[in-house]
């Protein structure tokens, strides 16, 4: 009854078990969501028409993010994704990634950062 939405959280109260209790659901609350998105991003990187060293470098960075999430080190995972974004921008500037590839990778990485931030705490 009486739900309220605050950002990515939905809060309501009900008496489903005989007592009035407050419940909350957080959208994207599971770090597994971020890991699944990272695995999808890794597949995209693998399919890029880029040099083997470029794809290997990017996948290594994404594996580092997954490792941090497995350890519940969300801030470090976010930092590693920011580093991934910086690397993508440098690779684009060097002509190793197209504008479109870089935009897709950065957009996906930024989405994953939001998932991670929403799963903290």
Topology:
Blueprint: E1 4-6, E2 9-14, E3 21-26, H1 31-46, H2 52-70, H3 74-93, H4 99-119
Antiparallel strand pairs: 1-2, 2-3
Helix pairs in contact: 1-2, 1-4, 2-3, 3-4
Written account of the structure:
By secondary structure, the chain is an alpha+beta fold. It is built from four helices and three strands. It has one domain (31-119). It has a three-stranded antiparallel beta sheet with strand order 1-2-3, with no helix packed on it. The two termini are 26 Å apart.
Q: What key attributes describe this structure?
A:
alpha+beta, 121 residues, 3-stranded antiparallel β-sheet, single chain, 4 helices
What gyration radius follows from the Cα positions, in whole Å? Answer: 18 Å
Biggest sheet layout:
3 strands, antiparallel
Tally the structural domains.
Answer: 1
Placed side by side, the strands forming the largest sheet appear as 1-2-3
Secondary structure class reads alpha+beta
Tell me the distance between the termini.
26 Å
